[in-house]
Amino acid sequence: MATLKNSSISFLLIGSGRVARHIAHYFHLSNISFQTWDRSQDPHALRVKIAAATHILLAISDSALQGFYRQHLLGHDDKVVVHFSGAHTFEGMIAAHPLMTFGEELYTLEFYRQIHFTLTGATSLDEALPGLTNSYSWLPSAQKALYHSYCVMGGNFVTLLIAKMLSGFATMKIPAEAAHLYVQKVVENTFANPETALTGPLVRKDVETVKANLKALENDPALKIYEAFLETYWPEYPRK
C-alpha cells in the first residue's frame, strides 16, 4: 500500500448507504476533497476515478467487500484501500471501523470528530484516513469478530430492547419522554460504574418478581430474551 503526503491525497468514496453518506458529510464539513461512485453510475467512470485516486474507501456491505476488491482493485498496489467493517479483515485492505451508529439524520462536525475508530492493517488513522484527527485503537485481526460481537450486543441489541420497551409503553399510554430519561440515566450509571450499575430483580434475587415478569411475557416472543438474560446472569434461578 502506498504512503503519501497529505497534499497528494485523493479520496474515492464507494457506496451510497448510511455509512457512505455520513463519511461524505464528515469530509464535506472538514473541507476534505473527494470523489464518489456507486452502482447507479457508469462502470467506466469507476475505472477513471480509481485511476485518479490514492485512497479508495469502500463504504459498502461486508458481503460485497472481497468481491468488489477482486473485481476492481486487484493489482492496484499503489492504492490505499480502506473498508469500514467491524467484523472482517481482508488482505490488501485496511479496516477502519467507526465505533458509532449511523442514522438517517446527519451529524455535526463536532460530533463526527468525537467518533473513535478501530484499525486493523494500519498503525495510525493517518495511514487510512489522512486529514481526520479522530482517536483510534489498533485491533489484531483475530479479535475483530469478538470486538464486533460486543458492538452488536452493546449497540444493536440495546436498540432492540429499548424499541420493545417503547412499543409496550405506548400501548399503556406511558410517554416516550419518561422512558428517555430512564434509559439516559441507565446509560450514565453504567458508564460511571459498570460493576454496580445493574438494578432490578436479577440483582435483588427477587424470585416472585421474576416469576411475575415471565408470566406476563408468556405469549410474547420477548419471553425468550428475558429467559436468556436470566440464564446468563442468574443461572441458579429456581424455575419450579
Tell me what you see in this structure.
With 240 residues, the chain is an alpha/beta fold. It folds into two domains: 6-139, Rossmann fold; 145-233, N-(1-d-carboxylethyl)-l-norvaline Dehydrogenase, domain 2 (Orthogonal Bundle), CATH 1.10.1040. The chain contains ten helices and seven strands. A seven-stranded mixed β-sheet has the order 2-1-3-4-5-6-7, with helices on both faces. Strand 1, helix 1 and strand 2 (34-37) form a beta-alpha-beta unit. The chain starts with 10 loop residues before the first strand and ends in a 7-residue tail after the last helix. The relative contact order is 0.09.
Secondary structure topology:
Elements: E1 11-14, H1 18-29, E2 34-37, H2 43-52, E3 55-58, H3 62-73, E4 80-83, E5 94-98, H4 109-114, E6 117-120, H5 125-128, E7 136-138, H6 144-171, H7 176-192, H8 201-204, H9 207-216, H10 223-233
- Please, what is the average pLDDT? 95
Assembly state of the chains shown: single chain
Give me the Rg, rounded: 22 Å
Measured distance between first and last alpha carbons? 61 Å
How many domain modules? 2
Order of helices and strands: EHEHEHEEHEHEHHHHH
CATH C-level class of the largest domain is: Alpha Beta
Strand content: 5-15%
Shape: elongated
Category by helix and strand content: alpha/beta
Percent range for helical residues? 40-55%
What spatial order of strands do you see in the largest sheet? 2-1-3-4-5-6-7
The CATH fourth-level homologous superfamily of the largest domain: NAD(P)-binding Rossmann-like Domain
Biggest sheet, in brief?
7 strands, mixed
Taking pLDDT < 50 over at least 5 consecutive residues as the criterion, the unreliable ranges are: 1-5
Q: In DSSP terms, counting alpha (H) and pi (I) runs of 4 or more, how many helices?
A: 10
Number of strands: 7
Instruction: Using the 3D structure, state the CATH architecture of the largest domain.
Output: 3-Layer(aba) Sandwich
CATH topology of the largest domain: Rossmann fold
